[in-house]
Amino acid sequence: MDVRYINPFIQAACQVFHTMLGTRIRRKSLLLKQSDCPTYDVTAVVGLSGEATGSVVLSVSRPVAFRVVEILLGYETTEINADVADAVGELANMIAGAAKTQLQNFQLSLGLPNVVVGRNHSLFFPTTVRPICVVFECDWGPLAIEAGLATSQTESPSCREDASQQEAALASPPVKS
Amino acid sequence: MKVLLVDDSGTMRTIQKRMFAKLGVPDEAISEAADGQQALQLFESNHFDLVLTDWNMPNMDGLTLLKEIRKRNEKVPVIMITTEAERARVVSAISAGVSDYLVKPFSPDALEAKLRRWVPAGVM
Lengths: 177, 124
Fold this sequence. Notes:
The complex is a heterodimer of chains A (177) and B (124).
Chain A lengths: L6 H15 L4 E7 L9 E8 L3 E8 L1 H12 L8 H21 L6 E2 L3 E4 L14 E7 L2 E10 L6 H4 L2 H8 L7
Antiparallel strand pairs in A: 1-6, 2-3, 2-4, 2-5, 3-7, 6-7
Helix pairs in contact in A: 1-3, 2-3
Chain B lengths: L2 E4 L3 H13 L7 E4 L2 H10 L4 E5 L7 H11 L5 E6 L6 H6 L4 E5 L3 H9 L8
Parallel strand pairs in B: 1-2, 1-3, 3-4, 4-5
Helix pairs in contact in B: 2-3
């Protein structure tokens, strides 16, 4: 995936966490997704379709998930229940919706969020794209955004050969987000 | 005051109910629907003073619901919750007779300010 396409998702995540939850999230690392990419306890997936296809994933650790419920729904929990899943799914939906605004060229449509609980799962993106994973931290714990968008460009051989350049770009110091 | 909340996310409905409670509207005065079809069924068999609906929902989206409501009732205030991406389409909601809209993500202050415009002062 073209590294430029991750920025709308980063900005959207920062905006959603700040506006809805009143907290700042700080970017820790950015990498092309490998099998050891951090996946936390509650993971919401929103499918994207249109001139590009793929998914955006929000994965949060338990402390983050519990704090989200406390702020949005007004009660404390230490169990991952249906409210936790729904709240994290709604955050993912808002992140995808906000990012979509900056990706208007793709005329994206959003699917409804699906939520997976637990770490023992695999997420598959379009085979022609290597998703980008962004790890954040906030005062409550870690979380991550993953995004993979397959465009007509990413399917061309020349763009697949650009992977090493993207690795180099991702290795650069994180920008302020 | 009777309120109809329409959103496929229980989280969003709870956020809105908590704000209505703050404004003096009790839970008993609020009906909930998870999509436009459910909402229309409730609307046809009940009186509501305010409808708050999401745009992007399964089965029947918010814009279609708005048009169906306007066929039945031209005056009831309908507030549409949209995303940034849908902001450009708000003009179609305005043409269909939406009363107001709120873009998410929104802060608690933004939600409160929006609802205060439509909740009569007497119930607060």
